[in-house]
Amino acid sequence: MTRLPRTFTGQTTLLAISAGDGRIVAARALARGGTRTTLSLPSDRYAILVDAASPTERPHNDDGIGPLVRVRPGRRATVTVALGRPSAEADDRRSQAPPGHRRSGDRSTGQPLALAAAASGPVVTVNGINLSLPDGSRISLDDPALTDLFPAWHDQDGITFVETHQQFTDFAQREQDLSDSGRLGEPYHFDPITPDFTVSGDARIDSKGRMSITIEVRARCSGQVIARITITRRVRGKPGSIGYAVGITAALADALSRLQPPSATGGCGCA
Question: What tens-digit pLDDT sequence spans the chain (271 residues)?
């Protein structure tokens, strides 16, 4: 579903998003080098989003959202992440695949699946955590941050996460347009859930390997910052090495573990 270099050293994350309202139902970080994973999901239609974030390589995620997948009761969805650029023949087969087509594969050896049940707390989106590297380039840390936050905040605090990035909302709008014009086999209606809070932030690494991270939780309506954490860490290893990437991931996880989650009463209560 996404095209990665064969020696990719960054983190690959996978999100299963309820196609009808944007709820993130599963969030997973694949093991380094992992290419397949099996998700046990509630019956629904899903957009499967794959993102590759690396401080050492440009991500190859131009094909990051596959066709809508219908998961029937008692079924499992198997997702394959392709390493390297597919052949022209494979590209042609994918372009001719019917809606909902998905390839089978072996189970991944990645991190344990974070799977959402019904949540009753506030609604949160992770959008706008960016890392500035010494060479001046910038990458998004939103998806790695989400996979770190998802288990604790959802399971312990009843928080619902929703996907609000343009990649997904543009995809949903295209599906809506196709449905409205009668070009989808199954009608589709997108009614997104509005988040109460946004998790955003800024991270920077200087030429000496010092990394500073500031992450905040902001109420959508009032703009009030209800939680903020700032830490500084040294990232060891040479830029471009696996150790360098691991150090960045560890520093991000440390910052997020200190961030106070929003409460159900902390929002502004607007529509």
Answer: 444 444 455 667 888 999 999 999 988 887 665 566 777 778 888 888 877 666 555 444 434 566 677 777 666 666 665 544 443 333 333 333 333 333 322 233 334 344 444 456 899 999 999 999 999 999 899 999 999 999 889 867 789 999 999 989 999 999 999 999 999 888 899 999 999 999 999 999 999 999 999 999 999 999 999 999 999 999 998 887 888 888 999 999 999 999 999 986 555 555 4
Domain annotation covers residue 118:
yes
pTM summary value:
0.78
Q: How many domains does the chain have?
A: 1
Amino acid identity at 182? G
85 part of a folded domain = yes
Q: Domain span at residue 139?
A: 11-257
Cβ-based neighbour number of residue 115 at 10 Å:
18
For 16, the token pair is 């299963």
Helix axes 142-157, 242-257, angle to 10 degrees: 40
CA-CA distance, 112 to 194, in Å (whole number)?
28
